[in-house]
Amino acid sequence: MKYSAKLIIGMTFLLSASYSSLAQNDTIKDHNFWNNVQFGGGIGLNFGNGFFSGTLAPAAIYRHNEYVSSGIGLNFQYSSQRDTFKSTVLGGSVIGLFNPFQELQISTEFEQLYVNRDFDEQFVANADDNYWYPALFLGIGYRNRNMTFGVRYDVLYDQDKSILNQAWMPFVRFWF
């Protein structure tokens, strides 16, 4: 199933606007921009049955208030399937975080990724491939101070193009 870039970009802006409008309901106590910026990001692992995928995703978010944050990030992923392929992925993301109460974090994250897949020679039917892949993750996690761990789901998951073996992916995020 193919999704148009306009639809994905529109959804991302709609989610960002929703978060921004929620954020404006509360006053920010500190009006200094940099005092409301947090740096951090996430790491992720996905593995099973000879498959491995590791993710490193540094990010920066702006805390609009105690409930809503939004930001940008970079993404690096490496994946491999034993005796089948290796893949390197680079990209960027836009993230929105909502904390209805201190321990719960709900997230939306749109990633635009450049994928480079290198198949083993025995798989002649699968040619090496380079392409752009969009991902839209909806996530939920348990938050304890500056750390959140949880699970996220790629609603745009495409079994033929995704480097992940499933749409679900656990995550750990740290903010400083």
Instruction: Please give the radius of gyration in angstroms.
Output: 17 Å
Task: Please summarize the sheet with the most strands.
Answer: 8 strands, antiparallel, barrel
H/E element string? HEEEEEEEE
Query: How helix-rich are the residues, as a percent range?
Result: 10-25%
Strand order of the largest sheet: 1-2-3-4-5-6-7-8
Brief descriptors of the model:
single chain, 176 residues, mainly beta, Porin, 8-stranded antiparallel β-barrel, 59% strand
Task: Note the topology.
Blueprint: H1 5-23, E1 37-48, E2 51-63, E3 68-81, E4 85-101, E5 104-119, E6 129-144, E7 147-154, E8 168-175
Antiparallel strand pairs: 1-2, 1-8, 2-3, 3-4, 4-5, 5-6, 6-7, 7-8
Quick take:
With 176 residues, the chain is mainly β.
What does this structure look like?
11% of the residues lie in helices and 59% in strands. It is mostly beta strands and 176 residues long. The chain has a single domain (5-25, 37-175), classed as Porin (Beta Barrel), CATH 2.40.160.20. Strands 1-2-3-4-5-6-7-8 form an eight-stranded antiparallel beta barrel. Strand 2 and strand 3 form a beta hairpin. It is elongated, with a radius of gyration of 17 Å. The N and C termini lie far apart (39 Å).
